[in-house]
Amino acid sequence: xxxxxxxxxxxxxxxxxxxxxxxxxxxxxxxxxxxxxxxxxxxxxxxxxxxxxxxxxxxxxxxxxxxxxxxxxxxxxxxxxxxxxxxxxxxxxxxxxxxxxxxxxxxxxxxxxxxxx
Length: 117
Known about the structure:
By secondary structure, this protein is mostly beta strands. Helices cover 3% and strands 51% of the residues. It has one domain (7-115).
């Protein structure tokens, strides 16, 4: 979780070139781990719930094909272990790939640290 309550997680789809460098000890994060959910509701749409401040949570839907080109057969793979950026601003949780090009990830589902108001 972010180090201060002024920062929260948001969920985004990012291409490989938008990912920040990974690091073993991400900065500006606590050792506390929050649980989020990501559920397939069909037609490449996923519903999510993200933890927030003081036990609150935020919910929404993400349409993979609205954000990315979705031609042919696609795969969605949740990572067993999230990958954090060295600066603690990104947490990669899943890969979205095309079976047409050998399961090479086209993009990533990423928790992105954002500042709250």
